[in-house]
Amino acid sequence: MTPTRVLSVNVSPVRPLAAEGRTVMSGIGKRAVPGDVAVRRLGLEGDDQADPTVHGGLDKAVYAYPVQHYRFWQTVRAQAGVTGWDEPLPHGFVGENLTIEGLDENRVWVGDLLRFPRCALAVQAPRSPCYKFNAVMGFSHAAKLMMQSGWCGWYLAVREPGTIAAGEPFELVPGPREVGIAEMFRTASARHARG
């Protein structure tokens, strides 16, 4: 089994994003930052959110995404003609604060705790993709592909503020295990599809 660790810590200021024929403000374009990054109740130092109803606030302070899904996104972007087949995506490209290894949506439940060496984050909810995700990915059906694949990542609340850095291991501490992230995402996707 792959050890669980943070591969990259990613932040972004809010900046203009061209999406659906207009310009909107977004913090989705995250980039990796070196060294220790402060983890505060409302998120990571240097990270801003344009729309806190979707990403931000106490319950969605940090967004984690499994690195193993990156190969899929690289492939579908190449198929869509957005990029070359051998052009890797930089960590943070999906909009995540933490690019992680060793854990995916099928092994994470609401209320689980991710315990890092100097902070602790609680699993809250899956991400729901929107038109901004389509804009970043460069093709109009990216959000639909995320809904179909279930490779959504998850939002975290800060239980113990501190610092976090790339390369750090973390431990998954099981919570009540009543609602899984994959199950919650499938339910939300089905509701969305019905309109």
Beta-strand residue percentage: 25-35%
CATH topology: M1 Pyruvate Kinase, Domain 3
* General form: globular
Going by CATH, what is the homologous superfamily? PK beta-barrel domain-like
Low-confidence stretches: none
Distance between the termini: 39 Å
Q: What's the helix-strand series? A: EEEEEEEHEEEHHEEEH
List the quaternary state of the chains. Answer: single chain
- In the CATH scheme, the class would be Mainly Beta
CATH architecture group name: Beta Barrel
* Helix content percent band: 10-25%
Q: What is the tally of beta strands?
A: 13
Cα gyration radius (Å)? 16 Å
Q: Work out the helix count.
A: 4
Q: What is the SS-derived class?
A: alpha+beta
Largest beta sheet: what is the strand line-up?
4-1-8-7-11-10-9-13
User: Could you tell me the mean pLDDT?
Assistant: 95
Summarize, please.
This protein is α+β, with helices and mostly antiparallel strands and 195 residues long. The chain is built from four helices and 13 strands. It has a single domain, classed as M1 Pyruvate Kinase, Domain 3.
